[in-house]
Amino acid sequence: MGCLPSDATVITQTVNALLLRTLALLQTPLSVLTLHQALNAADQALATASHFHRFDLEPRAHLYRGHVLRAWGRWRAAHAAYVRAASARGQGFSGTDIRGLTRDCIVMIRFENEREARLRRTYTAVKEGREGKKGLKAVRFSDEQRVPVFIRHDSQDDEGTRSNTSSSH
């Protein structure tokens, strides 16, 4: 599908406007709604660039998708978007450290994998303990502390019993 020069300009402006909206949304206090809106804008930019075969604009859309997904904590999807954005070039993109962004995602993916493995091991150990298998045993601590009470029969005051913690007035 060929584009007239004026069509190419309109497509570029549309994609850039959507990416600018994505960036603006990422600069606001993030909520689930804001992240959905930002991802939607980046997805629209990518769809527009792809539909009109503007392969020069696609990497930028992937880059912004990666930023949204990273802010959302969706590390695998962010990593995939950054890998696709690796060819991002042009004004405003020369300072983008794609390797650093993908490296950060990989670190977080490993962290989440380790965390999930620890949780699975803990769950399995607790489950086995409940089923009566040898392994972990539950230990309960009481909040109450028993203190011996001494009664003095020769006391002139009639206070009865006193604990060691003293209730002097």
From TrEMBL:
Region feature Disordered, mapped onto this chain: 147-169
Name of this chain's protein: Uncharacterized protein
Composition skew (Basic and acidic residues), residue ranges: 147-161
